[in-house]
Amino acid sequence: MRSPIQPYLRNVLDGIAERRDGALADYIPELAGVDPEPFGVAIAMLDGQTYAAGDADLPFTIQSVAKAFTYALAIRERGLDQVLEHIGIEPSGDAFNRISVDERGRPANPMINAGAIATFALVPGETAAEKFSAVLGFLSACAGRTLTVDESICASEWGAAYRNLGIANILRAGDALAAEPAVAVEGYIRQSSVLVTTRDLAVMGATLASGGVQPVTRERVIDEEIAGHVLSVMTTCGMYDAAGDWVSAVGIPAKSGVGGGIVGASPGRIGLAAFSPRLDRHGNSVRAVAACERLSRDLGLHLMRIP
Ligand code: GLN
C-alpha cells in the first residue's frame, strides 16, 4: 500500500513553495550563485525508513548544520568536561558570525562560528586534513553513506575567510583554541562545504533522535548521554538569534545552515529536514523554517506542547 506520508509531504511543499522572500547568502561568492528555487523536505523514522518530497535528493553544502555533529564527535573523543572548558552552552542571542567570547574566554556556544571553530580544533588530529578526515568520517557514519566536499564552494569560502580567521585569532590569543587559527578555520570551512541531501539530513537527525544509533546501518555513533546533550544545545542555540522564535513556534532541537538546510530531531520519534536556499535575516532558510513549523504542528512534535 502506498504510504499517505508521501502526498502529505508534497502538500506541505505546495503550501509553501510560492514563498520567494529571503535572499541567498552572498558573503561566500560561490553560494551567491546557486539556484534559489529548489525546495525539499524529508522525514526519517527510527527504523531507517525515509519519506521525501520535492528536491530532497539534490546535494547542497551542509554549512552550519555540521556544527551539531562535530560537537557530538568532539565530546565523544574528548569527553564533555574538556569540551566545556573550551566552549560554553549559553544561547548568544547574536548573529552566527559574532565574535563571541564569554567572561571565561570561551565562545558562548558550539552552534555559532566561534564555538564551532573551537569545536573543530578539539577533534583529534594534528593537521586540518587529519581533523577533517575524522569529521567527514563521522558525518558519513551519521548519514549512512560516504559524503564528499564541494571543492569550489570550499575554495570560495577560504578565499573570503577574513572574519572566521579573525575570530580564530582572538580565541587563540585568549587560549580558547586548541589548534593554530589557520588549521582550525581551514578544516572548519571544509566541514561546512560537505555535500548532503535533504534526505541525508533527515537520517542524520534520526541518528540524534534515536539517542545515537544510525537508523539504517544500526551503528551506534555516540552514547545516548551525548545525544541528549547535543539535542539540548541545539534546542537553545541551533537557530542563532532566532532560537527563541524557533522554540516557541516549532519546539524541537534543530540546526540550520546558510546553504539553506535545516535538520531537526524529535527525540525518540523522528528525524526531519528541509532545504531551500533563500535565507531570512538570521541566516535560516525561509521555506525550510516554514516547512518545519508545519510538520511540527501537524505531527504534534512540539516538545513543550501536550499532543
Ligand atoms: N561556512 C559558514 C561560515 O562560517 C557557515 C555559516 C552558517 O551556515 N551559518 O560563515
* Portion in helices: 40-55%
End-to-end CA span:
27 Å
| Number of contiguous helices | 12
What's the name of the CATH homologous superfamily of the largest domain?
DD-peptidase/beta-lactamase superfamily
The main sheet orders its strands as 2-1-7-6-5
Number of domains: 2
Give the mean pLDDT: 95
The protein's oligomeric status is single chain
Chemical compounds bound to the protein: glutamine
- What structural class results from the helix and strand content? alpha+beta
Based on Cα principal axes, name the global outline: globular
Spell out the key features of this protein.
2 domains, 10% strand, globular, two-stranded antiparallel sheet, Beta-lactamase, alpha+beta, 5-stranded antiparallel sheet, binds glutamine, 307 residues, 45% helix, 12 helices
Write the layout of secondary structure elements.
Elements: H1 5-16, E1 40-45, E2 50-54, E3 60-61, H2 65-78, H3 80-86, H4 113-122, H5 128-143, H6 151-158, H7 162-173, H8 181-192, E4 195-196, H9 198-209, H10 224-237, H11 243-249, E5 254-256, E6 261-266, E7 270-275, H12 286-299
Antiparallel strand pairs: 1-2, 1-7, 3-4, 5-6, 6-7
Helix pairs in contact: 2-3, 2-4, 2-5, 2-10, 4-7, 4-8, 5-8, 6-8, 7-8
Bound molecules: glutamine (GLN).
Protein name: Glutaminase
Family: Belongs to the glutaminase family.
GO biological process, one term: L-glutamine catabolic process
